[in-house]
Amino acid sequence: MYGCFHSVGIPDKPILAVVERVAAVGYPAIELNAETLPWAPAHVSPGTTRETRQGIIDACRSSNITIPAVGAHLLMVSADKAERQAAIDYVNGCIDLAVDVNSPVVHILSGPQATEGTYDDGWRWFAEAVEKTTDYAKRHGVELAVEAIAGHLFHSIDDYKRLFSDLGGVPFKINFDPSHLEVQGEDPARLVEELGEHIVHVHLKDGLGRYPDFSFPPLDEGTIDFAGLIPALARSGYDGALSIEYEAQVFGWKQDEQTILDHGIAFLRRFGIQMRNDT
Length: 279
Fold this sequence. Notes:
This protein is α/β, with parallel strands linked by helices. Helices cover 41% and strands 14% of the residues. The chain has one domain: TIM Barrel (Alpha-Beta Barrel), CATH 3.20.20.150. The chain has an eight-stranded parallel beta barrel, surrounded by five helices. A two-stranded antiparallel ribbon has the order 8-9.
C-alpha cells in the first residue's frame, strides 16, 4: 500500500498548486476531487479544459506522483429522470477525465433518498446508474467504485451485498471509507473481511459519534481502530492507495494546511505505508 492525499483537503487552491504542495511534502499520489461541496469546490470536472488536464499530467509526471482515483460524487437518485441522466453524464465525463490523466478509478455515491418516490424507487435508480456508469468505465479501462455514505440511500455494508446480488455480473467495485461505517455503528473491519476482494481505493478519515450526531475529526481523534484495520487491508490483498481525506474543518477543528499535510504523512508512516523517496 502507498500514501495519497485527497485534494478536497486543500479546497482553496487550484489543482495545479495542490499537486505541487502534495508532492513537495512527500506524498506519492494525489486523489482528484470532482465533487462540489458547501466548503469545497470541485478541483476537476468534465468541464476541465484540455490545457488544465495536460497541466495535471505534466505536474504529476515531473513530481513523480500518480492519481489513483477521481471522486465524482453527486446525487444519483433524483426523482427527476433528466437530473438522473445528467448525473450519469457527469460521472461518465469524469471517467473520460480519468482516462486523460491516467487514473484507474472513479468513485460515486448515491446521495440521500429523494423525497419524491419510495425507497425502492431510489434503490432501482441507483442500481441503474451503477450499471450504466460501470459499463462506460469498463469500456474505457477504468474501475467504477461505490462509496457508502452515512445518511444516504446507499450507506451500509449490507447495501454493498444487496447491490452485488441485484446486479449480478456488473463488475462495480468498492471505494472503502471506514469513517462513514464507524459513525453508523458498523464495524469497518467487517467490510474488509467479507468484501475485501472488491476494494479498489481507500479513504483514511476518522469517525466519532453516531449519525446524525457525529463528526469526522483529524486522524487519531476518533474511534476507528486503524491499528487493526490497515493490517486487515493488507491481509485481504489490497495494495493500493490509502488516501488522506481531511474534512475535520467542517466539524470545528482548526488546522493549517501544513499541519494537515504533515499529520497525514506521519500517520501513514506510523503504519509503514510507502511515501515518496522511501526506500
